[in-house]
Amino acid sequence: MKKIIILLSLIFLSFTWGDPFCEGWDEGYCQGWEYVKGEFSVCPVPPICPIPGINQTGYRDGYNRGFLRGRKDAQKQ
Predict the structure, then answer these.
(1) Does this model's pTM top 0.70?
(2) Which long-range contacts (CB under 8 A, 24 or more apart) does 32-40 make?
(3) FRET pair for 16, CA 20 to 30 Å: which of 6, 33, 50, 56?
(4) Where are the domains of the chain?
């Protein structure tokens, strides 16, 4: 049972670790938050990276979506 849990954990990490879209999402979310709240504000923990759309796999695609979401969330508060 322990081996199955470790194996599933490694598979999950291989899908989420090192994904350029998700790296862009995290960076863009923080930048979008700072765009509204100010340059020296503390960024919150970004939400879980969404599933990329069709032909959206690169860093820039994730950054753009994250920036818009971060700006939207910062305006709510």
Answers:
(1) yes
(2) 32/66, 32/67, 32/68, 32/69, 32/70, 32/71, 32/72, 32/73, 32/74, 33/70, 33/71, 33/73, 33/74, 34/70, 35/67, 35/70, 35/71, 35/74, 36/70, 36/71, 36/74, 36/75, 37/74
(3) 33
(4) 19-76
